[in-house]
Amino acid sequence: MRKQRGMGIVSIFFLLALLFVSAIIAMKCFPVYLEYFAIKRTFAALSTETKNASPKEVKEKFRARAQIDDIKSINADDLEISKEGGETVVSTAYQVTVPLFYNVSLLLDFSASTQ
Fold this sequence. Notes:
- By secondary structure, this protein is an alpha+beta fold.
- 49% of the residues lie in helices and 26% in strands.
- It has 2 helices and 3 strands, in the order ααβββ.
- It has helices at residues 9-49, 55-69, and strands at 80-84, 87-101, 104-113.
- The chain has a 3-stranded antiparallel sheet with strand order 1-2-3, covered by helices on one side.
- The longest helix has 41 residues, at 9-49.
């Protein structure tokens, strides 16, 4: 008898289930990462616009940009604003909980800074 070659039906179903779960996780996390990159773009723009601005001005500019970019994970009060080397440094750290299915959730930690 020759050896069987290829994948069996159980292996195919297992592979499809694994791909399905991976696709669900990717689809649920994609908007969260888009928002993170929008926050990073906003911080990059703030670093050029607010070189010697006061914390109040930085927060106002962030509010305006956050409204345009639809940033909802953080607000202006969550920003940590400091002066380093004569420049304004804006940073933040936040967590996002992404519900996957039933009682399973994914906790993502993010940290962004103008440095």
